[in-house]
Amino acid sequence: MQYRHGDLLIISIESIPKGAKKKQGKVIMEGEATGHAHVLDDGVLFEKDGRLYFDVKKARTTLRQTSPVKDDPDTHDPILIPRGRFMVIQERNYMPGPVPVQRVVD
Length: 106
Description:
Layout: E1 2-5, E2 8-13, E3 21-23, E4 27-30, E5 37-40, E6 44-48, E7 51-66, E8 79-90, E9 92-94, E10 101-103
């Protein structure tokens, strides 16, 4: 299964990679443009080789956006993520030129 939350693509995987390190907190990623954050209500975050993963042990969890901006127009609706293990990929843009691959700023 795949899920979208702003500039994040979340993909269901069989297992968290061996050697992945547990991370503190529930913030998957912080948005660079508005200072908002993509936050899990429950689950365990892991990181390996710059890639993020998470494990949901309950029946489901909610991925939501928090924002320091009141009435942020760029708010992403909360989504439900079922029990399982997931890999997080941040969307990137390809543009010809000296910096061909750029992260999407959310």
